[in-house]
Amino acid sequence: MKKMIDIDFGSSRYDELVELRYKVLLEPLGLKFLDKYREKEIGYLHIGCLDSLENKLVGGLMLIPVNDEEIRMMQVAVDTKHQREGIGHEMVKYAETRAKKAGYSRLVMNAMLSVVHFYEQMGYRQEGDLFEENGITFARMVKDL
Ligand SMILES: CC(C)(COP(=O)(O)OP(=O)(O)OC[C@H]1O[C@@H](n2cnc3c(N)ncnc32)[C@H](O)[C@@H]1OP(=O)(O)O)[C@@H](O)C(=O)NCCC(=O)NCCS
Q1: In the chain, what is the straight-line distance between the N-terminal and C-terminal CA atoms, in Å?
Q2: Which residues lie closer than 8 Å to 121 by C-beta, 6 or more apart?
Q3: Between the chain's N and C termini, which has fewer beta carbons within 10 Å?
Q4: Distance between CA atoms of 115 and 3, rounded to whole angstroms?
Q5: Is residue 84 part of a domain?
Q6: Which tens digit of pLDDT belongs to each residue from 47-75?
């Protein structure tokens, strides 16, 4: 059974989340997660999808306040063995509810071009021009909550 959970910065689940993000997002690009980045994540909202039977995280993301209205979603990752099972959709929906409850009215994110369709399915729209970072093309996407 899958369950969406909030994850406390510095907890053992947070360590598991960092590891999952590394495997799904960074390792394939040959990038490392440097410990100096951890401290920055203290004020962010961390969300995970827990496989409660296996007591294991199978997905995660974080939300970063931009200003009073806007919050940014980053590092959306689903375990490669569990992709395309609907976890991504459920997690993003949960994140939207959490953001709204916390008083934000707009969710923004930069999506890799390959997954723009995934976010469009969920009501996000592209804003502005595509841009490139480290050789990867991104689209800025927004949704009013
Ligand atoms: C993108 C991601 C978060 C989606 O989560 P998910 O649990 O796999 O997605 P869901 O099962 O909820 O939704 C599936 C739908 O999303 C889209 N989708 C999911 N993964 C996709 C991918 N890698 N490429 C293109 N479309 C994708 C498809 O439309 C898919 O529907 P389909 O299977 O009927 O074609 C997940 O696949 C992932 O972690 N990918 C690797 C990391 C990544 O690209 N993160 C996004 C950073 S911007």
Answers
A1: 28
A2: 89
A3: N
A4: 23
A5: yes
A6: 999 999 999 999 999 999 999 999 999 99
CB atoms inside a 10 Å sphere around CB 66: 13
HSE on the CB side for 36, CA within 13 Å? 1
pTM: 0.93
35 part of a folded domain: yes
Ligand 1 centroid – CA 39 distance (Å): 29
**Does residue 50 lie in a domain region?**
yes
* Nearest-atom index, ligand 1, CA of 109: 48
**Ligand 1 mean position, distance from CA 78 (Å):** 8
Q: Is the CB of 114 under 6 A from ligand 1?
A: yes
Task: Say which CATH number the domain at 64 has.
Answer: 3.40.630.30
Tell me the helices (H) and strands (E) count for the chain, helix number first. Answer: 3, 8
Q: Which residues contact 8 (CB under 8 A, 6 or more apart)?
A: 14, 46
Distance 10 CA to ligand 1 centre (A): 28
- Domain of residue 30 covers 2-107
